[in-house]
Amino acid sequence: MLAPRILLCYQVAPDAVDEQRQIQQLIADIQIAGADINDINLRRQDIHNEAFLPFFQDELAACQWMLVIQTPETVASSQVRTAVEYAITMQNRGELRGIIRAQLTPVANNALPVIWLSLPGVLLNIDYKTGRDQLLLMLGIGHPDSWADTAPSQAVALLSTAQIATPVAPRLFLPEADRGATIYPPRPMETPNTPTMTPLPPPLHPQKSLSSAHIAIAIIALGIIIFSFSIAFIFTNAQTNNIATATATALAQVRATQTHQQQLAAQTATAHAQLSATAATQTRATAAAIAQANTAATASAIGATATAQAYQPTSYEAEAATNTLANGAQIMPCGGCSGGQKVGDVGYKGTLQFNNISAPFSGNYTLTIYYCSGEQRNASVSVNGGTAVVLTFQPTGSFTTVGSQVITVHLNAGTNTILIFNVDHWAPDFDRITV
């Protein structure tokens, strides 16, 4: 069987010596177990955003597994997030066996992308040896007896005793639905014991014929049934008589009602004749008033239509050179976006400001924001430095699928600015706006 090829994707700080040494230890141990490693350290590769996705697609196409080394830099990297989203798409198409998340440095769950929480993984930071052995078991490399006690590779510096905790039982962090389940290596099948068939004992008492007491009980039960039917017949007959009496009374009331209705009809005909004469006079006056109102309404509608036709919404691209990107916000490739680009890494300190938003007159306008997000995120919108409005952006399916959010804003006549930011969390990626 060919050795599996694993793409290792991560980002680590240059001064994180311990993390780099542990990653090199893990690479050596996986290679000893018989797998090939394609090591993609995004900080070392120094790949620009425009060229990253084609580069990653080519590398992942030659691999069967993807292993994400979880560090704070890995979680914050927009390139790693894009890589994980593309790998999940390949796995759903059956082109990748799986994606495993190996925690090297603890990161709070609320800081992780929601989609990462569904990925199975192992904990290397609690007990490296136990986590490594569990990872090899998930990758299906050999049998535990062949590598559980294998000495690590001598090509790298081993971790000190203080850096490796006392071994504990293997642990996995799994999707929410599987939390609490324990994963064990397969056990050899055991042959079940065949039970010995024991014949049933004979009945303790032989079948007896019906006694006179049984016959008496049956006669009493039959008498009770006949008595019940008699009572029911008497009750039903009484109810029938009551219904007949009530029906006769109702018919008399109906006849009285019909007579009263005939009298009301005659009175209504007289009143109708009087109203007809009055209505003829009022109709002539109403016709003149309606004609005047229609003339005024037509003039108003013509003016409103002319105003609406004179103004059409204008589209402004997020990646336009006239906009202001600050504190880490950057232009990224996006196949589903207009112009093939978007602005990402907006949030925390990163901000996106649309400049030179033109308005022919001062008033309220409809602002449509086109964005991409694989999860629900929030963002604040401020016009001309005014009070910000917090919006909730629903997931669009992925960070390359475009959705829209519509709000009403007040613009001044002339040019305006629209600032988008999120102080505490990541905002969605933005394609364009229309005003």
How would you characterize this protein structure?
The structure is a single chain. The chain is built from eight helices and 17 strands. With 435 residues, the protein is an alpha+beta fold. Among the domains are: 5-178, Toll/interleukin-1 receptor homology (TIR) domain (Rossmann fold), CATH 3.40.50; 315-434, Galactose-binding domain-like (Jelly Rolls). Strand 9 (330-333) and strand 10 form a beta hairpin. Helix 3 runs parallel beside helix 5 (78-92).
Summary, kept brief:
This protein is 39% helix and 23% strand. By secondary structure, the chain is of the alpha+beta class.
Key features?
17 strands; 39% helix; Rossmann fold; alpha+beta; flat; 435 residues; Jelly Rolls
Please indicate the percent range of residues in DSSP E strands (runs of 2 or more).
15-25%
Poorly predicted segments? 146-209
> What is the structural class?
alpha+beta
Instruction: Report the span from N to C terminus.
Output: 60 Å
Q: H/E element string? A: EHEHHEHHEEHHEHEEEEEEEEEEE
CATH architecture of the domain at 5-178: 3-Layer(aba) Sandwich
> How many helices in DSSP terms?
8
Arithmetic mean of pLDDT: 79
